[in-house]
Specification:
10 helices, Rossmann fold, Alpha-Beta Plaits, alpha/beta, 29% strand, 2 domains, 7-stranded mixed beta sheet, 4-stranded antiparallel beta sheet
Length: 327
């Protein structure tokens, strides 16, 4: 099958802006090409053989693919309008110039998109936790890890490597106590749910919008000895789907964790507040620098207290506690 490839010429500083705009259009799988030098940590964790670095000129190319029968004209029109709407916010103090944003198109033959990326993903550490992809033999360094997680994202998002996930993992490790009940919103490949169990949780209820998470979570749980864990997964939207909200329950959870973009986190606040027990903690990430105050403000408006913000690179984690009594 042929695929239509669309490439946006932008600036490396605005990569997150463009990918967020694409995400709002339900386009989540993108390729990013730039000349930003890799850090030594990235070189050590991601690649076996590093290509010679080129001089960073600030230019980036972000590509996405549509099936041959997709209404590409409509998608591109929506994308152009979204970019224009973003440019209209030029007076915003957090505005980042996205550059020319020209869009070019081409046609490419079908490839094994699901598996080709695996050549760039190898085992890595987050603190003393070692993550090993399912296609890689257990590293000799595993003996130096206090915890080993075997992971295969499949076609569900989530390898655990991104800064937003790292922020969630560290916060979960600090907050989860033996016997706690956890709600994982947007579970993806199930990394945070698995780690919640490893940190002592008694049960985890998870939601996601993508049916692909069913297989990804089941396989990853089995790989990590959690086949019989008290884990339940529902595909649906906790924000406005009453059936999903009822399935999750109310005043149930000690911790709710959500690693999603800031606008979605803000819409989640009422449902999460209802799901948490009094004194329960809401852990959020996926928040780009400059958006954390919006999330914190939404938490305060929803009735949360003890708001805490932590950072890693350009990303932020915001956590808060549900009030002990009625608002």
């Amino acid at each position: 099958m042929e695929w239509k490839k669309f490439t946006i010429k932008t600036r490396s500083a605005a990569e997150d802006v463009i990918t967020a705009i694409l995400a709002d259009l339900d386009i989540y799988s993108v390729e990013i090409e730039d000349n930003v030098p890799l850090t030594e940590t990235e070189k050590a964790q991601m690649f076996v053989d590093i290509a010679p670095e080129r001089k960073d000129d600030g230019t980036a190319f972000i590509s996405f693919y549509l099936e041959e029968d997709a209404d590409a004209e409509s998608v591109v029109e929506k994308l152009e309008n979204a970019i224009l709407a973003y440019r209209a916010r030029m007076d915003d103090p957090f505005y980042i110039d996205p550059g020319e944003c020209t869009i070019t198109s081409s046609v490419t033959e079908d490839q094994d998109w699901i598996n080709n990326w695996k050549q760039y993903f190898s085992s890595f550490y987050i603190d003393d936790i070692l993550f090993i992809p399912s296609w890689e033999k257990e590293a000799q360094t595993a003996k130096d890890a206090s915890l080993v997680i075997h992971i295969d994202p499949g076609i569900a998002f989530g390898t655990g490597k991104h800064e937003t996930t790292q922020l969630c993992i560290r916060e979960l490790r600090e907050k989860v106590k033996p016997g706690m009940k956890v709600l994982d919103v947007g579970t993806g490949s199930g990394i945070l749910a698995m780690l919640a169990f490893k940190f002592g949780a008694a049960s985890v209820f998870a939601t996601d919008l993508d049916v692909a998470v069913n297989d990804a979570c089941r396989d990853n749980f089995e790989r990590n000895g959690l086949k019989d864990a008290d884990f339940k997964l529902v595909v649906g939207n906790l924000i406005d789907d009453k059936a999903v909200q009822d399935a999750a329950g109310y005043d149930e959870y000690d911790i709710v964790v959500a690693n999603i973009l800031a606008p979605v986190l803000i819409m989640l606040m009422p449902a999460v507040y209802a799901a948490l027990r009094p004194g329960g903690v809401f852990i959020t990430s996926g928040i780009i620098e400059g958006k954390e105050e919006e999330v914190a403000g939404a938490m305060s408006d929803a009735g949360f207290k003890d708001i805490c913000i932590r950072e890693l690179g350009e990303w932020r984690m915001v956590s808060a506690v549900k009030q002990d009594g009625e608002r």
